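Possible regression after last week's pipeline update?

I re-ran a chain I had predicted before the update to compare outputs. Posting the input and the new output here so someone can diff against the archived version. Not blocking, just want to make sure nothing changed silently.
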Amino acid sequence: FRLKQTDYDQSIAYSDLKAIEFMDSNDSNFMEVFPNPFSTELNMNFNTNWAQKATLQLIDSSGKTIYGEKLDLANGRSRKVLDLSNIKAGVYALRLSNDSGVLYSKLIKAE
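New output (post-update):
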């Protein structure tokens, strides 16, 4: 994400891009997605307490799955990089699901 600040004199400043982390209630499993917005590549870091299978989906604003993949996540930290240079600019949802639950992340593909 990135913050936009508008001062009283109407000058505008933007913060640096920051990664977003999604954590479960015990803060031991998470998915980190960056940069957002992205232009070509999307980086994902996963941390899990045990090896597990998961399904990764990229969903467009009409609800259509435009990318899907089965993942074998290792115990500990895993990384995945997606080349999404071929998709149109817009708003997307990234969905990661397994037997334990579902995580969503809102993504923005820049021009």
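Follow-up from reviewer: compared with the archived run. Residues 21-25 have pLDDT under 50 and may be disordered. Marking as no regression found.
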